[in-house]
Amino acid sequence: MQIDLTQRSAVVTGGANGIGLATVRRLAASGARVAIWDRVAAVGTAAVQSLTDSGLDVIFIEVDVTDTAAVHAAVAETTARFGRLDILINNAGIVRDAQLVKLRDGEVSGGMSDADFDAVIAVNLKGVYTCTQAVVPHMLANRWGRIVNASSVVAANGNFGQTNYVAAKAGVIGMTQVWARELGRRGITVNAIAPGFIATDMTAAIPPAVLASMKAATPLARLGTPEDVANAYCFLASEQAGFINGAVLGVDGGLVIGT
Q1: Is residue 204 a part of any domain in this protein?
Q2: Residue of 82, 117, 165, 179 marked catalytic
Q3: What tens digit of pLDDT does each residue of 194-244 get?
Q4: Which of 101, 132, 210, 254 sits 20 to 30 Å CA-CA off 181?
Q5: Whole-prediction pTM
Q6: Is 233 a catalytic residue?
């Protein structure tokens, strides 16, 4: 399938590395002008240099998705550069894993902190809300838009030690479905993706035995790649996905159905 985004401009939050960077590359290779929104200026600048050296139309804007004023400033800068804003990929996310309550010798010895709970909710859930609310008026003006949000397979079934992450990703699915109802009649589709085990810098630190078990739990018997997820983002951002709205697309190698 040939995806042509030559008339479109896009934002990818958390686009400076990993899945986000692969998504920026995929969108730009399909002809879109793409703005990377990320917190780390050095990494974002290096990513843009690499991509523009390859002939792709990409810019970097330093922005924290938890900062409402910074998000609105980034929208203004993006639209000033590109003239319009058609696609929003809400990809930015963090993890701060811990058990709800940790026991040692029958006594409570720790657990998830309020700070870690709040940080994950702020980025992974409220950040999606903040960016979408800031971008949507520009899509409404053109009566066309594509919003794709990052959820996760854990949103449906939970995951040990991830109370905050699971709560955020389940919330993203709920918001996706609300916005699909609210915005669909305005020519804007809103969908989510639910990745499974993806080979990123995060998984690179996982012990080999654990990685082996993750692969064994996946019917395709491998980890996904950032490009696997980027392809899904790009499809849902395209004209070809114009009648898909309020959906959650699993990109998990069949993980949710088991082996």
Answers
A1: yes
A2: 165
A3: 999 899 887 777 888 888 888 888 999 999 999 999 999 999 999 999 999
A4: 254
A5: 0.95
A6: no
